[in-house]
Design a protein that fits this description.
The complex is a heterodimer of chains A (491) and B (486). Chain A has 491 residues and is mostly helical. Chain A has 20 helices and 7 strands. The chains are: A mainly alpha (491), B alpha/beta (486). Chains A and B meet through α14, β1 and α20 of A and α6 and α13 of B.
Chain lengths: 491, 486
Amino acid sequence: MILLDAGPSDWVLFFGHFHPILVHLPIGMLVLAFIMYFFSKEQNEGLRQKSISAIFLWASLFAFISCAMGWALSQTGEYDEDTLFFHQWLGISTGVISAILSYMAKFWSDEKTMMKLFKPVLWVSLILITITGHLGGNLTHGSDYLTAYLPQPIRAWVGMEARAEAAEGGAIIPKIDNIQQAIVYQQLVQPVLKQKCWSCHNAEKQKGKLRMDTPEFLMAGGEDGVIIKAGMPLESEMIKRLLMDASEEHHMPPKGKTPMTEDEIAVLQWWVQHGADFKKKVVAMPADAKIKTILAKYASGTSATEPYWSPVFKMSISEADEDDIASLRKLGLLVNQAAKDQAFLEVNAVNAHGLSDKELSELSSVQDQIVRLKLGQTKLTDNFMSQISDMPLLIQLDLDHTIVSDKGLSALENLKYLESLNLYGTKVSDAGLMSLAKIKSLQRVYLWQTKVTEAGVAKLKKMRPGLLVDFGFKGKWPLEIDTVKVEEKAK
Amino acid sequence: MEKIFKEAIENEAILATRRHFLNTLGTGIGSLALGSALWNCQTSSKPQNSAFKIPPHFGKAKSVIFLHMAGAPSQLELFDYKPVLAKFDGKECPKELIEGKKFAFIRGIPNLLGPKAKFAQHGKSGHWISDHMPHLATQSDKITFLKGMYTDQFNHAPAQLLMHTGSARLGRPSLGSWVSYGLGSENENLPGFMVLASGGKNPDAGKSAWGSGFLPSVYQGVQCRSAGEPVLFIQNPEGVNTDIRKASIDAINSVNEETFKEFGDPETVARIAQYEMAYKMQSSVPEVMDISKEPEYIHQLYGTKPGEEAFANNCLLARKMVEQGVRFVQLFDWGWDSHGTSKSGSVDYGLHQKCLETDRAISALLIDLEQRGLLDETLVVWGGEFGRTPMQENREGKTLDYFGRDHHTDAFTMWLAGGGIKPGFSFGETDELGYATVNGKTSIYDLQATILHCLGFNHEEFTFPFQGRNFRLTDVYGKVIKPILA
């Protein structure tokens, strides 16, 4: 009995797994034969026919070996039967036709009437191998693999659905505006399953004979039975495997695949706990504090798990000249690569507070590389700002304790990537904030001990709601609570 | 002909000033270390242009302030709110929890002890923070908690060593040493790694908690005293003026230089650099260590009193150092070991006292870094070396006079804020009694890996060859805690 249940032997599966490697041999050979037939400049026709025949013979041999291994692989039962059927028979046909072509090229090369057939059959073989290969690809990677990243204009043209906008920082679940009315399965569960489970449990491929791409299949389970027991998350195989230690063999998603985040698992668990219903809305399912926090994250679109990086770091730029860097260092500036093997530079004047516009103007030699520029406490003036505006990749700029004023700030408007601007202790006033509002990329601005007023800050915040404006600590400390006698409190 | 050569050599000597000489030497240590890393025992005396070195990836944090509350503060009275534990206050601890477990002092079956503080949620983040830390509660949205920390050391000294050096035994370089070895100092006049202890008591792990282990000794932490002379013997002795001092250091260094040429021991170069640094520190350290010139509103913010030996002063100093480009500032406070054997060692009165001493200053540090635009590039870490038990300590099987908790390794809370860390976030969760972590378990190595990551290092590749193999801070463990990264 055990033997009957054991499925295909390891030997069968071992060879089966070589199928995806070996299939590329006959493909390449057929294409080569095709090229030789149509493009060869070989004058000796006999020689050409002979070579082509040999290539077809080998192609057919490898095609048959591939077919055998493909059959072995199919014994896992993980593949969509319809697709598999066509893939299998088209593959076998390819092998047969290759053999025929080999025979024709060798023995009929002198018979003109027969050779009229050669060209069409050759075309047939090429079309066959294309279709077979494509079906094979669909079986392994899923049918939307090739078109997954089709650019939007072409999608619109062929009438394909637009690709779901990638949420900020690569979040799987995009920002949900009305979280209470969201359908739990559709908006919180399915996107996660789609991203992290479907690649092995879909229409074409069913690892463990399990499909997860529709509610029906999800509830039907796989070869070991149902995977979801409504109301009992810890008894449900799906949840159990998600919660296992990553080192365990049955942990899902398996090693090498992107793991689920704790939030994602928590939401799946919550969904199963409350009946694994496919229609229920968030509002209809009681949520504890933990779930509420996660829901709040989805509502605010901050569920992103990937850290934020400035788009600047994706650019490839040319390296600054070593001599230019050396002469800047002579001024006492710290000039260093932001990271190994990257041309981006960080410049810091912490050891050279005495520098003025004239010396700092040397920075123009590395202006295309600077991403982080700290010139706090130096003697630079508003005039230097125009030079800073020529540093296109600047992400962070510190000008604290300089005499920079509103006049200089307008020059910064064209910095496309500036995220952090430190103006603490400068002569900037409310008027200058209007220039800041125009820097679209700006995320943080520090305005402590400037001429800026609360009204000015309020106006800036209104113009740029997401902007963090630090205006210095305005609270009154010590807090009242400090004055409470410790002895009294301890009672 | 000979005359021409002689003249050329002399000219060269004139062109290379002392500054050049020392600069290339002092900064050459990095390349020496690299040299020995790449070619094992061979050292290269080829100078690098700067002491500042390059991390493998862009680090959002440029410096670290590590606030170590030595003795281990009780997470159950501060941040890990457990209403269920309150319900079972005074009941016997379930046997399953303590079976086969070892505690420092608890014997037999202890009783559970409900939280001895009032908790409330604060800020947009909704962090639970107790009324022991009213100031920190106002900064709730800046910090990220790790509530599922665990360790395997339940005694102070080894646990502190593990926290700071990645090994419970002596001899490994500390986190700050690794960081200053990896990144160098931004400020040429200050060491990259400074240590400030609150006074009264040094941590149990001793100076090894900021030692350089097998890294070149220039990378060890420089301890500054917060009262009196900041660094001992840094002033010129009586009768020695700056010129004489300078001349003698130059003389010593040139002898050391000869020695290095002869033997090629990198420690000699370290020694030269230390002399040079000590000389520079004679003016830079008293300046950075002087908080009396800070404006009144700053003292008001931190609750600092110049001249006192206090944790608050150290927080202010830490900010000043980071502002000046110091890479790693390590603060040690002590007295957090609330066993319940004395009033000052209780989780109600004693712990609250410690919070009164530190809460305002730590919160002020976050505020002050933020308003100077430094919080974004400074990683602030707070925590003890382990946690405290949900059970009341019953030393020698007796009920103690005060409420206290024993050392606990299975779950404790730490927090991080600033450079590279998601603000207002919480990771990890303990069970209803706060006994063990149920999800988001993070080890000491995970924390270390995350700190290094924020500074731009891959903890698995950041190594130093010693005794025939490559060592790393996290040994063979550790995983960057990705969910908390900004």
